[in-house]
C-alpha cells in the first residue's frame, strides 16, 4: 500500500430514511448554521441564502469571527443564541464535529445535521446518546428543495419528465 492511499473508516452508522428526514424538516422551526460564512463562494452562504428566501425557518448564524451575515447577527457559539435551535446545520472540519455535537446537545437542539461530505460517527453517538436526531453527509438545502419540489429552483436539473402542460408565468 502506498503512502498516498488513504484508508476510509468503515461506515457503520445508519441515517434516517427519506420520510424521517422530511419529518425532521417539517417539525423544525429554527436552524442554526454553525460555520456560517459571509463569503458568497462558501457552501454555507449558498445554503443560508436558500433557507432565508425559500424555507419557513428562523435562521441563526454561528461564527465567532463575524458580526453579521446576510444582514443578520452572527453569534459566537450555539450557547449565545436567543433560542434552542431545532436543527444545528454544521459546516466545520471533521476534527471539530464531536465538539459541535456536544455544543448542540448543551444548547438543547433537537437535530444535529452534518453537511455533504461530513461524516463523524463519534459526533453522531454524542448527539444520539442525548436524544437528538442525526443526519450526516446530506445538505439541508438540497433535502428541503427535494421534498418541496424546488430542486429546479435550487440549481438542480431534476430530470423529471412529465406530460403536464407547463404554465407560463403571466398567462392565465
Features:
16% strand, Rossmann fold, disordered C terminus
Q: Helical stretch count?
A: 5
Oligomeric nature of the chains: single chain
Write down the overall mean pLDDT.
Answer: 86
CATH architecture: 3-Layer(aba) Sandwich
Q: Strand content of the residues, in percent?
A: 15-25%
Structural class computed from helices and strand pairing: alpha/beta
Which parts are unreliable, with pLDDT below 50 for 5 consecutive residues or more?
A: 151-172
What's this entry about, in short?
The protein is α/β, with parallel strands linked by helices and 172 residues long.
Structural overview:
- By secondary structure, this protein is an alpha/beta fold.
- The chain has one domain (18-147): Rossmann fold (3-Layer(aba) Sandwich).
- The chain has five helices and seven strands; from the N terminus they run αβαββββαβαβα.
- Strand 5, helix 3 and strand 6 form a beta-alpha-beta unit.
- Helix 3 (97-106) runs parallel beside helix 4.
- The chain starts with 17 loop residues before the first helix and ends in a 25-residue tail after the last helix.
Amino acid at each position: 500500500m502506498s503512502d498516498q492511499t488513504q484508508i476510509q473508516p468503515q461506515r457503520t452508522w445508519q441515517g434516517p430514511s427519506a420520510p424521517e428526514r422530511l419529518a425532521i424538516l417539517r417539525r423544525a422551526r429554527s436552524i442554526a448554521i454553525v460555520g456560517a460564512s459571509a463569503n458568497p463562494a462558501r457552501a454555507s452562504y449558498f445554503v443560508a441564502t436558500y433557507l432565508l428566501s425559500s424555507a419557513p425557518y428562523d435562521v441563526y448564524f454561528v461564527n465567532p469571527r463575524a458580526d453579521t451575515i446576510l444582514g443578520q447577527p452572527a453569534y459566537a457559539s450555539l450557547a449565545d443564541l436567543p433560542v434552542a435551535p431545532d436543527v444545528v446545520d454544521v459546516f466545520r472540519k471533521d476534527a471539530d464535529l464531536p465538539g459541535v455535537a456536544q455544543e448542540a446537545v448543551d444548547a438543547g437542539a433537537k437535530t444535529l445535521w452534518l453537511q455533504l461530505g461530513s461524516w463523524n460517527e463519534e459526533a453522531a453517538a454524542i448527539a444520539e446518546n442525548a436524544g437528538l436526531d442525526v443526519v450526516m453527509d446530506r445538505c439541508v438545502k438540497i433535502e428541503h428543495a427535494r421534498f418541496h419540489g424546488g430542486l429546479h429552483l435550487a440549481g438542480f436539473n431534476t430530470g423529471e419528465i412529465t406530460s403536464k402542460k407547463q404554465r407560463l408565468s403571466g398567462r392565465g
